[in-house]
Amino acid sequence: MNFMELATTRYSVRAFDNRAIEADKLQKILEAGRIAPTAKNNQPQHIYVVKSAAGLAKMQAVTRCHYGAPVVLIVAYDKNLEWQNPLENGVVSGQQDASIIATHMMLQATELGIGSVWVDMFSPTEVKKVFELPENIVPVLLMPLGYAAKDAAPSPFHTQKKPLSETVTEI
Ligand SMILES: Cc1cc2nc3c(=O)[nH]c(=O)nc-3n(C[C@H](O)[C@H](O)[C@H](O)COP(=O)(O)O)c2cc1C
């Protein structure tokens, strides 16, 4: 698959079958995140892999968007490690760093035939509490991962993308 094939093959998977993700595939997905760029290479990310029965039960309590996935990643960053823009007070990189890492992981998952969905429908405060994460950690997104169920299909949103003429301006 070339890059555009990979990018168009990915869609938000919201129904998973009960097949486990092989350990080497999960490792590859995490590795794809590890090599992503981060501001000043600070690498403030921390990825929590939730796959135990107890962890998945907690996940079901914190989001309705777990979709029964066998693995859910909590993609987070350490607010003590994120880059601070010296040119503008308060402009920091943690959310961007985590998002790039998550995107790398989603696309690697797609190449391996593993479905994913980006989930923001959760309370970061509650996730920190339920999973007992350190004070300095900021959860950015959850990422359910697994093999798509037989009846999984892209939502209509998947193909409803604005034309470039609406989102790109030469200035
Ligand atoms: C920042 C962000 C937050 C999202 N949050 C959720 C979510 O909480 N639950 C969900 O089911 N999908 C969520 N999505 C998936 C989007 O709804 C989806 O990417 C969009 O509708 C386009 O569909 P596609 O991913 O199939 O191309 C999120 C995506 C992004 C990028």
Give a verbal description of the structure.
The structure is a single chain. With 171 residues, the chain is α+β, with helices and mostly antiparallel strands. The chain has helices spanning 3-9, 23-34, 53-62, 94-111, 124-130, 164-167; strands at 45-50, 71-78, 115-116, 137-146. The longest helix has 18 residues, at 94-111. The protein starts with a helix and ends with a helix. Flavin mononucleotide binds at residues 11-12, 14, 65, 117-121, 154-155, 157-158.
Number of individual domains: 1
Q: How far from one another are the termini?
A: 34 Å
CATH architecture: 3-Layer(aba) Sandwich
Ligands (ions, cofactors included): flavin mononucleotide
Strand order of the largest sheet: 1-2-4-3
Percentage beta strand = 15-25%
Briefly note the structural class of the backbone. alpha+beta
The helix content, as a percent range, equals: 25-40%
Low-confidence stretches: none
Largest sheet: 4 strands, antiparallel
Short précis:
This protein has 171 residues and is an alpha+beta fold. It has helices at 3-9, 23-34, 53-62, 94-111, 124-130, 164-167, and strands at residues 45-50, 71-78, 115-116, 137-146.
What's the topology here?
Layout: H1 3-9, H2 23-34, E1 45-50, H3 53-62, E2 71-78, H4 94-111, E3 115-116, H5 124-130, E4 137-146, H6 164-167
Antiparallel strand pairs: 1-2, 2-4, 3-4
Helix pairs in contact: 2-4
Flavin mononucleotide (FMN) binds at residues 11-12, 14, 65, 117-121, 154-155, 157-158.
